[in-house]
Amino acid sequence: MQTSFTPEQLTNPDIQAAEDILRKCVHCGFCTATCPTYVLLGDELDSPRGRIYLIKDMLEGDKTATPKVAKHLDRCLTCLSCMTTCPASVNYMRLIDIGRARLHETFKRPLPERALRTLLAWLLPKPSLFRISLMGAWLARPFANFLPGRLKGMIAMAPKTVHGPASVDTPQAFPAIGTRTKRVALMNGCAQQVLRPEINEATVRLLTRHECEVVIADGSGCCGALVHHMGREHEAVAAAKANIAAWERVSEQQGGLDAIVINASGCGTTVKDYGFLLRKDPEWAERAARISDITKDITEIMADIPLQKKLQTTELRVTYHSACSMQHGQKITTLPKTLLSDAGFTVQDPSESHICCGSAGTYNLMQPEIASQLQARKVANIKATEPDVIAAGNIGCMEQIANGQDKTNPTPVVHTVELLDWATGGPKPVQM
User: Fold this and answer.
1) Topology, domain 167-303
2) pLDDT tens digit string along 236-245?
3) CATH 1.10.1060.10 spans which residues of the chain?
């Protein structure tokens, strides 16, 4: 794709990055076949190729974002399926983030939209506040039908049980059982520790049982993905710097770290890109790149460690849902399924496994109509496999799939790590 940025524009690092990405696009349209919004809506501007043209026009003309640009960029799930199918290796993830940052800077949204985005950006990254809000939402459930559409949807998603802080989510170190072979820092995240604290608990048990010392760093928290995908770049950068500093401190105190372990693939995709996010900051660029280099999904860590002798009989049919951030963002496709098979489970893939479930961070709250269509499609494809249990590696997908099922006969939805923990001596997942 030809570009026409001026030399002055190209002094901006974001424009430099955008030009490099845009020039790789060859207009082929392969991306449209796997883009969920194009598949549903059939609008060229709701495809990656269409959004690329919108971003190109906005950046080249140094234009203020318009309602049209906002509409179609907002509809993007950032599922990154287009990057898997693109023959030219166009880094759409970075381009859409650059476009959304310009959108956030130059476009004034209607007041209700601004209020919702501000609320989500303030609330979700803070576990204590998020926990309180879920308690309020649970109390408001009987009145949900009298509330406006989006608010009603948010109330409906609130879990029936709100968990208190888990013991594993405070700064501390968990010694390896037996001879220590690795020392890792576990990112305990934000929303996940409120919605499903058992995931971090299972992760710590699994790792320590397999000779890994696990450290929870003081000062680490939200990865910044939620605000980053809203275009709130300064807040994302602040979150990244806080995590990097926390992991550097604990590495120095503990004598080094072999890896940063993440058990939410959406967070993993973001942390693995910290080097790019902070590339413009001379003080942080190299530090961020080092952290990105040692960041691993929990399945990547476990793939290097032989699973202990199975202590449970686990002949269950597991349908594995591959989160978009896992398969498209991090290119991790077979590892989770191989681990589950090695642990004794019968692993199945649903049809259209490459299509997003509609969760996509806060997407299901901001674009509920499209998200609900994708949710129904995903649940139907999973249910067709007749699973005993559904496994995934991302909290947003787990909640989306669980909430999309028939409440009279739901199939348990658990994290991959919970099944691996159970199969090697841990407790049975609480959802089962």
Assistant:
1) Rossmann fold (3.40.50)
2) 999 999 999 9
3) 9-106
Question: How would you class 408 by CB atoms within 10 Å of its CB: exposed for 0-12, middle for 13-18, buried for 19 or more?
Answer: exposed
β-pair partners for 415: 392
Burial category of 114 from C-beta neighbours within 10 Å (exposed 0-12, middle 13-18, buried 19 and up): exposed
CA 162 – CA 9 distance, rounded (Å): 49
pLDDT tens per residue across span 274-331: 999 999 999 999 999 999 999 999 999 999 999 987 766 667 999 999 999 999 999 9
> What CA dihedral angle connects 13, 105, 225 and 289, to 10 degrees?
20
Question: Is the domain defined by 317-423 classed in CATH 2.40.10?
Answer: no
Q: Using H for helix, E for strand and C for coil, what is the string for 131-168?
A: HHHHHHHHHHHHHHHHCCHHHHHHHHHCCCCCCCCCHH
Under 8 Å between Cβ of 245 and 282: no
Instruction: Return d(Cα 342, Cα 347) in angstroms, integer.
Output: 10
Would you identify the CATH topology of the domain 9-106? Fumarate Reductase Iron-sulfur Protein; Chain B, domain 2 (1.10.1060)
- Tell me the C-alpha distance between 238 and 206, whole Å: 31
Assigned token pair, 179:
């001879």
The pTM of this model reads: 0.94
